[in-house]
């Protein structure tokens, strides 16, 4: 076909929306069932086995895909950056649907353009009209082929979700520091077993999810289950923390990347980065049970719970607060503050020649622009790497890394909210800085 008329483009747009609604109907129904089955797994090993099993089943089903739509499904499952061209996954999916319709609708468009003379007639048609003509095969539409396409696009979307879940599981398994924490917390749980809470407690927590319950009722639950015995309260808290960790992880896995991207775009349009951090949408520390830690590989990240399901676990978190009150603990909510920062400047500990050289090095490595920090939050570790190289080359004095990082950050107008730990980024920029010093030594 040649160029499309405005009427033809509008028809394709309406049919694209209808196909998209069919796909959404299939995936949303299946997603609820998947969420239930995933949550019913007893432990992480069962979750991993279930995920891998479902992926294999879906891969077998894909082998029955019509060859005429196979390339569209492949593109949807494994898009390259070139394919995406800056689109979100929802926009990319719509573009694939449009391309599919263009290849199949040549005769259909000819019939429909004889029915609709201009765009206003199309806009005035009931939205269900487009669903009906596709589902019932009107105006020359091959409805069986259309629904075959819908079925396999929905299957591809579900497969993408399960692959993301498996990647997340593998990523968590690869973190040795998390394993150490897990082992520690499991050992603590074993020590509290004399006052073990009944298995029915999980059913109580399930009932509290996404449910507004008064503090008095929550207190009654705690008193009934533990008699306010401190050992039992500690065990109850432990059980709840494990429950929250497991359920939040499962809940995150059932939101697609497209849904997350959409939520991020929406919230970014309303707030600055500083506001997003203050409001909790962006986080600079992570939590494992009640253990807070900084992740040097991900110093700032999107809080999926706040973005996607902010109210799901609020009542259960209030339950923990009431337990803490009865144990006599004060919930620690303030982050570990840094060692008190020195009011010194770089000029107090080294000469101006060394300072100018260090600043020029960062400018030439594009860490700064006009001598102000110019990298993303995730790249702050570059400062540590450069300082390590400058110390090893005796350009900066043999002071503590924390002090030097603070002073250099002050010099380039970078705010450091926490200590810069060693990371892949710091190692990368240390190598770059040492190479720079080798070829452009300080004279």
What is the element layout, followed by pairings?
Elements: H1 6-39, H2 44-62, H3 67-77, H4 81-84, H5 89-104, H6 106-115, H7 119-124, H8 128-136, H9 143-173, H10 176-191, H11 201-208, H12 215-226, H13 230-253, H14 257-268, H15 273-279, E1 282-283, E2 286-288, E3 291-293, E4 301-302, H16 304-308, H17 314-327, H18 352-364, E5 368-369, E6 372-373, H19 381-392, H20 401-411, H21 424-439
Antiparallel strand pairs: 1-4, 2-3, 5-6
What does this protein structure show overall?
With 443 residues, this protein is mainly alpha-helical. It has 3 domains: 6-171, no CATH class; 176-327, no CATH class; 346-439, no CATH class. It is built from 21 helices and 6 strands. Strands 1-4 form a two-stranded antiparallel sheet. Strands 2-3 form a two-stranded antiparallel ribbon. A hairpin with a 2-residue loop joins strand 5 (368-369) and strand 6 (372-373). Helix 1 packs across helix 8, helix 3 (67-77) runs parallel beside helix 9 (143-173) and helix 12 (215-226) crosses helix 17. It is globular and about 80 Å long. Mean pLDDT is 82; it is low at 194-198 and 329-343.
């Amino acid at each position: 076909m040649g160029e499309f008329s405005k009427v033809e483009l509008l028809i394709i747009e309406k049919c694209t929306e209808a196909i998209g609604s069919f796909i959404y109907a299939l995936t949303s129904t299946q997603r609820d069932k998947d969420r239930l089955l995933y949550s019913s797994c007893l432990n992480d090993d069962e979750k991993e086995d279930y995920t891998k099993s479902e992926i294999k089943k879906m891969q077998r089903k894909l082998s029955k895909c019509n060859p005429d739509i196979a390339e569209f499904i492949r593109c949807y499952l494994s898009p390259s950056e070139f394919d995406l061209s800056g689109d979100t996954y929802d926009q990319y999916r719509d573009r694939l649907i449009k391309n599919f319709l263009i290849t199949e609708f040549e005769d259909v468009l000819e019939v429909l353009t004889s029915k609709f003379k201009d765009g206003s007639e199309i806009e005035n048609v009931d939205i269900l009209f487009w669903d009906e003509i596709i589902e019932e095969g009107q105006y020359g539409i091959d409805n069986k082929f259309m629904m075959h396409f819908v079925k396999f696009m929905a299957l591809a979307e579900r497969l993408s979700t399960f692959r993301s879940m498996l990647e997340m599981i593998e990523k968590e398994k690869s973190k040795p520091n998390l394993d150490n924490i897990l082992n520690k917390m499991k050992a603590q749980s074993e020590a509290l077993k004399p006052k073990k809470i009944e298995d029915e407690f999980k059913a109580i927590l399930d009932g509290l999810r996404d449910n507004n319950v008064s503090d008095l009722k929550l207190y009654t639950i705690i008193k009934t289950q533990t008699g306010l015995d401190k050992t039992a309260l500690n065990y109850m808290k432990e059980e709840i923390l494990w429950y929250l960790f497991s359920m939040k992880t499962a809940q995150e896995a059932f939101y697609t990347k497209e849904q997350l991207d959409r939520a991020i775009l929406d919230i970014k349009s309303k707030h600055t980065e500083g506001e997003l951090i203050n409001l909790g949408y962006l986080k600079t520390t992570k939590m494992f049970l009640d253990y807070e830690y900084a992740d040097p590989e991900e110093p700032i990240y999107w809080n999926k719970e706040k973005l996607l399901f902010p109210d799901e676990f609020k009542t259960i978190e209030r339950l923990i607060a009431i337990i803490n009150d009865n144990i006599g603990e004060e919930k620690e909510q303030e982050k570990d503050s840094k060692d008190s920062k020195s009011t010194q400047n770089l000029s107090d500990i080294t000469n101006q020649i060394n300072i100018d050289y260090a600043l020029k090095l960062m400018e030439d490595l594009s860490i700064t622009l006009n001598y102000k920090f110019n990298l993303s939050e995730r790249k702050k570790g570059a400062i540590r790497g450069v300082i390590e190289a400058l110390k090893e080359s005796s350009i900066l004095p043999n002071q503590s890394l924390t002090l030097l990082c603070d002073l250099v950050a002050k010099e380039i107008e970078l705010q450091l909210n926490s200590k810069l730990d060693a990371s892949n980024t710091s190692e990368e920029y240390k190598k770059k800085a040492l190479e720079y010093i080798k070829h452009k030594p300080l004279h």
